[in-house]
Amino acid sequence: MKDNRFVIGRMKSMEYSVKGAYKLITTEHSVMVQFFIGIVVTIAGFCFNISSTEWMLQTLAIGLVLSIEGLNTAAEKIADFIHPEYHEKIGFIKDIASGAVFFAAMAAIAVGAIIYYPKVVLLF
Length: 124
Description:
By secondary structure, the chain is mainly alpha-helical. The chain contains four helices and no strands. The chain has a single domain, classed as Helix Hairpins, CATH 1.10.287. It comes from Flavobacterium suzhouense. InterPro entries: DAGK, DAGK_sf, UDPK. Its main location: membrane.
């Protein structure tokens, strides 16, 4: 039964969201790797004392990659549920969803390079 009370309903939505994020991080290997990379660059941000703008861009990049990966995983799970055997059209859909993750990851790599390349070069 759906709870229509505003605060209670939002709290339940948050509970489902946190549960979903936990499932992604603990069951999907690609998300585990990306989450780990997110932690590493967050630590690097503290070590290199990045600016507020750099923090915002880095945070958005991490969030973008993890979000798109979550949507990709959901699309794959739905496709596998609907049609467990290989099907050319399902494969096409899954490839497109994976391509979206690729674009997000490339954008995140670009953000990381713009932020950290000058800082790392100054060390040497």
